[in-house]
Amino acid sequence: MTLKTTLTASAAALALLTGAALADPVKVGIAAEPYPPFAAPDSAGNWTGWEVEMIDAVCAAADLECVLTPVAWDGIIPSLMGEQIDVIMASMSITEERAKQIDFSDHYYKTPAVVVAAKGSDIEPTVEGLSGKILGVQASTTHQAYAQKHFEDAAAEIRIYQTQDEANQDLVSGRIDAIQADSIAMADFVESDIGDCCEVVGAVADDVAVLGQGVGAGLRKGDDELREKINMGIAAVLENGTHEEITAKYFSAPIYSK
Questions:
Q1: pTM above 0.70, yes or no
Q2: Pair 71, 85: CB distance under 8 Å
Q3: Is the bond preceding residue 125 a cis peptide, omega within 30 degrees?
Q4: 113 and 203 in contact (C-beta within 8 Å)?
Q5: Distance between CA atoms of 204 and 212, rounded to whole angstroms?
Q6: pLDDT tens-digit map of 11-34
Q7: pLDDT, mean over the chain
């Protein structure tokens, strides 16, 4: 067998192996902690929400068989790298720091980061407005990184929570003065009965290096075929109106911007 024939045969075998791998169910990692309205289990334990529906739509458009796999948020990247899951679709922002470890698909939504405080407070989403205040953020998020970069010297304390719900509850109870989080998640919170005490006081100044370029699917380095399929699925749901249709069920305004 010639070298050329050997290389050709090897390439064909590799293509068959890759195709077989993608034929298996793709384990899509979502955060095990509820993050409404993006993803949360219902009373029967079934996961529902905007991102859950978007995962279904993207996988269908990409002709992928996908299975949701809840993973603790602070261990979701190690789970991807350790092959317990194949892709992350859990409102993960595309950032330079994360891109050192994993690859990303094109983004499928992009919204600003905001600060929420009690109604009538004098708090603003600035260094001056948060001076001497206790600011809550969820652990291992772009909001934690942003707060520590921009507000640590001004705030009395930046308090870190394992889940967004815990931060929300402490804001409602008055144990902290404000929280920083995604604008869509916070819009849902302040419109709820429990969040009626509070309001969005504004968006923080953008910092692409920290807050990222939008939310994308995270994949292992070099998993190019799966990334291309996910990108194809994202492009399809944006083009055929499915993205807008799902978004309208949960939000009053579009959440995708280029």
A1: yes
A2: yes
A3: no
A4: yes
A5: 13
A6: 444 444 444 345 589 999 999 999
A7: 91
